Amino acid sequence: PPERKRFYQNVSISQGEGGFEINLDHRKLKTPQAKLFTVPSEALAIAVATEWDSQKDTIKFYTMHLTTLCNTALDNPTQRNKMQLIRAAVKFLETDTVCYRVEEPAALAELQKKEWDPVVAWAEKRYNVAIGSSTSILGPNIPATTKETFVSHLASYNMWALQGIEYVITQLKSLILSMGLIDRHITVEKAVLLSRLEEEYQIQRWGSVEWAHDYDLCELRARAAAGTLFVHLCSESSTVKHKLLQD
After folding, report:
1. What is the pLDDT along the chain (247 residues), one digit of tens a residue?
2. Is the distance from CB of 31 to CB of 37 less than 8 angstroms?
3. Could you give the C-alpha distances from 174 to 89, 194, 199, 209, 231, in angstroms and in order?
4. For this UniProt entry, which segments traverse the membrane (predicted)?
5. Last residue of a domain, one of 75, 97, 124
6. Strands 38-39 and 11-15
7. If you count DSSP H runs as helices and E runs as strands, how many of each does the chain have, helices first?
8. Which of 77, 113, 129, 168 could bridge 146 with an S-S bond, Cβ 3.0-4.6 Å?
Protein backbone atom coordinates (compact mmCIF):
# COMPACT_ATOMS: atom_id res chain seq x y z
CA PRO A 1 0.00 0.00 0.00
CA PRO A 2 1.09 3.61 -0.54
CA GLU A 3 2.45 5.70 2.30
CA ARG A 4 -0.14 7.58 4.34
CA LYS A 5 0.12 10.40 6.84
CA ARG A 6 0.57 9.28 10.44
CA PHE A 7 -2.87 9.71 12.04
CA TYR A 8 -2.10 8.73 15.65
CA GLN A 9 0.00 10.05 18.50
CA ASN A 10 0.44 7.13 20.88
CA VAL A 11 0.83 3.38 20.43
CA SER A 12 0.02 0.90 23.19
CA ILE A 13 -0.82 -2.76 23.68
CA SER A 14 -3.60 -4.38 25.70
CA GLN A 15 -4.66 -7.93 26.43
CA GLY A 16 -7.97 -9.07 25.00
CA GLU A 17 -9.82 -12.38 24.88
CA GLY A 18 -7.96 -13.62 21.81
CA GLY A 19 -4.50 -12.41 22.73
CA PHE A 20 -2.66 -9.09 22.67
CA GLU A 21 -4.00 -6.11 20.72
CA ILE A 22 -2.37 -2.96 19.31
CA ASN A 23 -3.97 0.40 20.05
CA LEU A 24 -3.34 3.51 17.95
CA ASP A 25 -4.51 6.21 20.35
CA HIS A 26 -7.98 4.84 21.22
CA ARG A 27 -8.46 2.83 18.04
CA LYS A 28 -7.75 -0.87 17.85
CA LEU A 29 -5.58 -1.92 14.91
CA LYS A 30 -7.33 -4.03 12.26
CA THR A 31 -6.02 -6.29 9.50
CA PRO A 32 -6.53 -5.55 5.77
CA GLN A 33 -9.58 -7.84 5.95
CA ALA A 34 -10.91 -5.79 8.89
CA LYS A 35 -10.24 -8.48 11.51
CA LEU A 36 -9.13 -7.42 14.97
CA PHE A 37 -5.32 -7.40 14.98
CA THR A 38 -4.56 -9.89 17.77
CA VAL A 39 -1.22 -11.63 18.31
CA PRO A 40 -0.43 -14.66 20.51
CA SER A 41 2.43 -13.24 22.60
CA GLU A 42 3.11 -10.02 24.49
CA ALA A 43 6.66 -9.88 23.11
CA LEU A 44 5.35 -9.97 19.53
CA ALA A 45 2.77 -7.29 20.36
CA ILE A 46 5.54 -5.04 21.75
CA ALA A 47 7.63 -5.62 18.60
CA VAL A 48 4.70 -4.72 16.32
CA ALA A 49 3.83 -1.68 18.46
CA THR A 50 7.44 -0.55 18.12
CA GLU A 51 7.13 -0.69 14.31
CA TRP A 52 4.07 1.59 14.44
CA ASP A 53 5.63 3.90 17.01
CA SER A 54 8.83 4.29 14.95
CA GLN A 55 6.92 5.67 11.94
CA LYS A 56 7.49 9.41 11.51
CA ASP A 57 5.28 11.83 9.58
CA THR A 58 4.18 9.14 7.13
CA ILE A 59 3.51 5.43 7.63
CA LYS A 60 5.89 3.40 5.45
CA PHE A 61 4.14 0.04 5.33
CA TYR A 62 7.00 -1.56 3.39
CA THR A 63 9.26 -1.16 6.43
CA MET A 64 6.83 -2.94 8.79
CA HIS A 65 7.72 -6.58 8.20
CA LEU A 66 6.37 -7.92 11.52
CA THR A 67 3.03 -6.17 11.01
CA THR A 68 2.83 -7.66 7.51
CA LEU A 69 3.57 -11.16 8.81
CA CYS A 70 0.89 -10.83 11.50
CA ASN A 71 -1.63 -9.65 8.89
CA THR A 72 -0.78 -12.69 6.76
CA ALA A 73 -1.17 -15.05 9.72
CA LEU A 74 -4.52 -13.51 10.72
CA ASP A 75 -6.08 -13.10 7.26
CA ASN A 76 -4.42 -16.11 5.57
CA PRO A 77 -5.09 -14.52 2.14
CA THR A 78 -4.04 -17.65 0.23
CA GLN A 79 -6.35 -19.79 2.42
CA ARG A 80 -3.78 -22.54 2.92
CA ASN A 81 -3.93 -25.06 5.73
CA LYS A 82 -0.99 -26.22 7.84
CA MET A 83 0.05 -29.11 5.59
CA GLN A 84 -0.10 -26.93 2.47
CA LEU A 85 2.22 -24.42 4.14
CA ILE A 86 4.62 -27.20 5.14
CA ARG A 87 4.65 -28.77 1.66
CA ALA A 88 5.31 -25.37 0.06
CA ALA A 89 8.28 -24.83 2.39
CA VAL A 90 9.76 -28.28 1.80
CA LYS A 91 9.35 -27.91 -1.98
CA PHE A 92 12.13 -25.29 -1.83
CA LEU A 93 14.58 -28.16 -1.20
CA GLU A 94 14.27 -29.07 -4.91
CA THR A 95 15.65 -25.67 -5.93
CA ASP A 96 17.63 -24.81 -2.79
CA THR A 97 20.28 -22.16 -3.45
CA VAL A 98 23.07 -24.02 -1.62
CA CYS A 99 22.45 -27.25 -3.56
CA TYR A 100 23.00 -25.75 -7.02
CA ARG A 101 26.70 -25.53 -7.85
CA VAL A 102 28.70 -24.23 -10.81
CA GLU A 103 31.68 -25.91 -12.48
CA GLU A 104 33.03 -22.67 -13.95
CA PRO A 105 34.57 -20.31 -13.07
CA ALA A 106 36.76 -22.43 -10.83
CA ALA A 107 37.12 -19.66 -8.24
CA LEU A 108 33.33 -19.45 -7.75
CA ALA A 109 33.02 -23.25 -7.64
CA GLU A 110 35.65 -23.35 -4.91
CA LEU A 111 33.94 -20.52 -3.02
CA GLN A 112 30.60 -22.38 -3.11
CA LYS A 113 32.26 -25.54 -1.84
CA LYS A 114 34.04 -23.67 0.96
CA GLU A 115 31.02 -21.65 2.12
CA TRP A 116 28.05 -23.91 1.37
CA ASP A 117 29.39 -27.40 2.16
CA PRO A 118 29.62 -26.75 5.94
CA VAL A 119 25.98 -25.61 6.22
CA VAL A 120 24.76 -28.57 4.14
CA ALA A 121 26.82 -30.91 6.33
CA TRP A 122 25.31 -29.29 9.43
CA ALA A 123 21.76 -29.81 8.13
CA GLU A 124 22.46 -33.44 7.22
CA LYS A 125 23.75 -34.12 10.73
CA ARG A 126 21.15 -32.00 12.54
CA TYR A 127 18.18 -33.69 10.84
CA ASN A 128 19.82 -37.05 10.06
CA VAL A 129 19.13 -36.73 6.33
CA ALA A 130 20.92 -36.87 2.98
CA ILE A 131 20.88 -33.66 0.91
CA GLY A 132 23.95 -33.35 -1.28
CA SER A 133 24.55 -30.93 -4.16
CA SER A 134 24.70 -30.97 -7.94
CA THR A 135 26.13 -29.07 -10.90
CA SER A 136 23.27 -30.31 -13.10
CA ILE A 137 20.62 -27.81 -14.18
CA LEU A 138 18.11 -30.33 -12.80
CA GLY A 139 19.59 -29.94 -9.34
CA PRO A 140 20.27 -32.65 -6.75
CA ASN A 141 18.06 -35.69 -6.34
CA ILE A 142 16.65 -35.11 -2.85
CA PRO A 143 15.52 -38.44 -1.29
CA ALA A 144 11.85 -38.73 -0.37
CA THR A 145 12.87 -39.65 3.18
CA THR A 146 14.69 -36.31 3.51
CA LYS A 147 11.59 -34.42 2.44
CA GLU A 148 9.41 -36.36 4.86
CA THR A 149 11.83 -35.67 7.71
CA PHE A 150 11.53 -31.94 7.08
CA VAL A 151 7.75 -32.27 6.81
CA SER A 152 7.68 -33.93 10.23
CA HIS A 153 10.00 -31.31 11.72
CA LEU A 154 8.00 -28.37 10.39
CA ALA A 155 4.78 -29.96 11.65
CA SER A 156 6.04 -29.28 15.19
CA TYR A 157 5.57 -25.54 14.57
CA ASN A 158 2.23 -23.74 14.87
CA MET A 159 0.53 -21.97 11.95
CA TRP A 160 1.90 -18.55 12.90
CA ALA A 161 5.48 -19.77 13.05
CA LEU A 162 5.07 -21.61 9.74
CA GLN A 163 4.04 -18.36 8.04
CA GLY A 164 7.29 -16.86 9.29
CA ILE A 165 9.37 -19.86 8.22
CA GLU A 166 7.99 -19.76 4.68
CA TYR A 167 8.65 -16.01 4.58
CA VAL A 168 12.31 -16.49 5.53
CA ILE A 169 12.67 -19.31 2.98
CA THR A 170 11.30 -17.15 0.17
CA GLN A 171 13.74 -14.36 1.10
CA LEU A 172 16.81 -16.61 1.19
CA LYS A 173 15.61 -19.01 -1.56
CA SER A 174 16.80 -21.81 0.70
CA LEU A 175 15.19 -24.14 3.22
CA ILE A 176 18.64 -25.18 4.49
CA LEU A 177 19.85 -21.64 5.19
CA SER A 178 16.51 -20.75 6.74
CA MET A 179 16.58 -23.66 9.17
CA GLY A 180 20.19 -22.85 10.03
CA LEU A 181 19.12 -19.30 10.81
CA ILE A 182 16.01 -20.27 12.81
CA ASP A 183 17.99 -22.92 14.73
CA ARG A 184 20.54 -20.19 15.59
CA HIS A 185 23.33 -22.10 13.82
CA ILE A 186 24.14 -19.08 11.63
CA THR A 187 23.52 -15.35 11.99
CA VAL A 188 21.28 -13.21 9.81
CA GLU A 189 24.35 -11.60 8.22
CA LYS A 190 25.87 -15.00 7.44
CA ALA A 191 22.62 -16.44 6.06
CA VAL A 192 22.14 -13.45 3.76
CA LEU A 193 25.75 -13.57 2.59
CA LEU A 194 25.47 -17.29 1.80
CA SER A 195 22.19 -16.74 -0.07
CA ARG A 196 23.85 -14.07 -2.24
CA LEU A 197 27.21 -15.81 -2.68
CA GLU A 198 27.32 -15.69 -6.48
CA GLU A 199 26.18 -12.06 -6.54
CA GLU A 200 28.79 -11.11 -3.95
CA TYR A 201 31.44 -12.94 -6.00
CA GLN A 202 30.49 -10.96 -9.11
CA ILE A 203 30.55 -7.70 -7.14
CA GLN A 204 34.05 -8.47 -5.88
CA ARG A 205 35.15 -8.94 -9.48
CA TRP A 206 33.25 -6.22 -11.30
CA GLY A 207 32.10 -3.79 -8.62
CA SER A 208 28.59 -2.82 -7.56
CA VAL A 209 25.99 -0.33 -8.73
CA GLU A 210 26.24 2.60 -6.32
CA TRP A 211 23.55 2.48 -3.61
CA ALA A 212 21.59 -0.38 -5.20
CA HIS A 213 23.73 -3.18 -3.79
CA ASP A 214 23.82 -1.76 -0.25
CA TYR A 215 20.07 -1.13 -0.29
CA ASP A 216 19.28 -4.67 -1.48
CA LEU A 217 21.62 -6.14 1.12
CA CYS A 218 20.13 -4.15 4.00
CA GLU A 219 16.57 -4.87 2.88
CA LEU A 220 17.21 -8.61 2.69
CA ARG A 221 18.82 -8.57 6.13
CA ALA A 222 15.83 -6.70 7.55
CA ARG A 223 13.36 -9.18 6.05
CA ALA A 224 15.32 -12.26 7.15
CA ALA A 225 15.77 -10.87 10.65
CA ALA A 226 12.09 -9.95 10.98
CA GLY A 227 10.97 -13.37 9.76
CA THR A 228 13.31 -15.17 12.16
CA LEU A 229 12.23 -13.02 15.11
CA PHE A 230 8.59 -13.66 14.18
CA VAL A 231 9.16 -17.45 14.20
CA HIS A 232 10.88 -17.34 17.59
CA LEU A 233 8.25 -15.13 19.21
CA CYS A 234 5.39 -17.24 17.87
CA SER A 235 7.06 -20.54 18.78
CA GLU A 236 8.04 -19.49 22.29
CA SER A 237 4.54 -18.28 23.11
CA SER A 238 3.04 -21.67 22.27
CA THR A 239 5.73 -23.39 24.34
CA VAL A 240 4.93 -21.19 27.32
CA LYS A 241 1.21 -21.89 26.98
CA HIS A 242 1.86 -25.61 26.72
CA LYS A 243 4.00 -25.61 29.87
CA LEU A 244 1.38 -23.60 31.75
CA LEU A 245 -1.30 -26.11 30.77
CA GLN A 246 0.90 -28.98 31.95
CA ASP A 247 1.50 -27.26 35.29
Report:
1. 677 899 999 999 999 888 999 999 999 999 999 999 999 999 999 999 999 999 999 999 999 999 999 999 999 999 999 999 999 999 999 899 999 999 999 999 999 999 999 999 999 999 999 998 988 887 788 999 999 999 999 999 999 999 999 999 999 999 999 999 999 999 999 999 999 999 889 888 776 666 667 788 899 999 999 999 999 999 864 444 444 434 4
2. yes
3. 9, 10, 15, 25, 16
4. none
5. 75
6. unpaired
7. 10, 6
8. 129
Measure CA 146 to chain center. Answer: 21
d(CA 10, CA 53): 7
Q: Are residues 15 and 129 both part of a single domain? A: no
Question: 18, 36 in Cβ contact below 8 A?
Answer: yes
What does the alpha-carbon distance between residue 94 and residue 230 come to, in Å, rounded to a whole number?
25
Residue 36 has phi, psi (to 5 degrees) of: -65, 130
CATH number for the domain including 199?
1.10.3580.10
The number of distinct structural domains making up the chain is 2
